[in-house]
Design brief:
CATH topology of the largest domain: FAD/NAD(P)-binding domain
Radius of gyration: 20 Å
Largest sheet: 8 strands, mixed
Order of helices and strands: EHEEEHEEHEEEEHHEEEEHHEEEH
Number of helices: 8
Distance between the termini: 26 Å
CATH superfamily of the largest domain: FAD/NAD(P)-binding domain
Length: 318
């Protein structure tokens, strides 16, 4: 075996759960190697940048904000605030936080001291007598401990042969989709509030992204369709979905339609996992493999962090 490709621990997925797990392991003197298919820190705490002649636009097109209820996570958020990676968003509530200057702010801060390889698409996972092997574009990386922090639908496919019992557990989880529309207007669209919520409308959430702390672009809006409406429109092309949902947003809020200067959409096929039980994290000490993610705790940023931290604790204690 090529020693240059060996690590004690490999973590697949460098979103909030994977990064939280890696930090907890690092604090215990157990560094990990992380691989993520994304081009950089983000995942569902993503920020989309758009270059225009008049300047750059930014859209938080995944998680819109997060809260902190667990005391340990609250302290971590305060650490991020001190580092300039998060800020409070008072318009939403006293306990609403956003990453700065984009939602991926805390993820960038977490990833900075870690060994993360981005744009790494996992082809296969295999188990030998002593080691796990992770194949990435034909290159093998071996480890003794394998931790996986990706959506459950992807876990099911990845571990179907290597760890069928964990694959089956992941397959029991169903996730609801979410279409997100990103629209920028040159003129105010007629909404004084910086956000609009609806429990019954096609558009469940709309926020003036430029009103968040550290943002620019006053009339840059993020619209998120309800789970039901997203399911109905799931297979539309993104341009068609963007136009349709924007029209429904104007109608839902009694506004005259305006032509946006920029319009696009993003489909989150696995946006909101339905958590039936809360094991927090899963760890098989005999096979030295574990799972973490918000789908094992709660579909929130805090849930992902708690799950990743818990998985590290289970591994260290085994």
């Amino acid at each position: 075996m090529d020693e240059s490709s060996f690590s004690e621990t490999i973590i697949i997925g460098a979103g909030m759960a994977g990064l939280a797990c890696a930090h907890a392991l690092r604090s215990a003197g157990r560094p990990a190697k992380l691989f993520d298919k994304g081009r950089g820190p983000g995942g569902r705490m993503a920020t989309r940048r758009v270059d225009r002649e008049s300047g750059q636009l930014y859209f938080d097109h995944g998680a819109q904000f997060f809260t902190a209820r667990d005391p340990v996570f609250q302290q971590r958020v305060l650490d991020w605030e001190q580092a300039g990676a998060v800020a409070k968003w008072p318009a939403i509530g006293a306990d609403a936080w956003v990453g700065t200057p984009g939602m991926n702010g805390p993820l960038k801060a977490m990833a900075a001291p870690l060994d993360v390889t981005w744009s790494a698409r996992i082809d296969a996972v295999r188990k030998s007598d002593e080691h796990w092997q992770v194949e990435i574009e034909g290159e093998l990386h071996s480890c003794t401990h394998l931790l996986i922090a990706i959506p459950p639908e992807q876990v099911g496919d990845l571990l179907e042969d290597a760890a069928p019992e964990l694959a089956e557990t992941a397959r029991q989880v169903q996730s609801r989709p979410c279409w997100t529309v990103m629209a920028h207007f040159e003129q105010p669209i007629g909404i004084s509030s910086d956000f609009v919520r609806s429990d019954t409308g096609a558009i469940a959430w709309a926020a003036r992204n430029g009103a968040k702390p550290g943002r620019t672009g006053s009339e840059s809006w993020v619209l998120q369709a309800s789970a039901a409406r997203s399911q109905e429109a799931l297979e539309l092309e993104k341009d068609e979905a963007a136009k349709l949902l924007l029209a429904e947003f104007f109608e839902q809020n009694g506004l005259d339609a305006q032509a946006p200067a920029h319009l696009t959409a993003h489909r989150w096929r696995y946006a909101l996992p339905k958590v039936e039980e809360s094991p927090v994290a899963l760890w098989n000490a005999d096979k030295r493999i574990g799972l973490a993610g918000d789908w094992l705790h709660s579909p929130r940023v805090e849930g992902a962090w708690l799950s990743g931290t818990r998985l590290a604790s289970l591994m260290i204690g085994s």
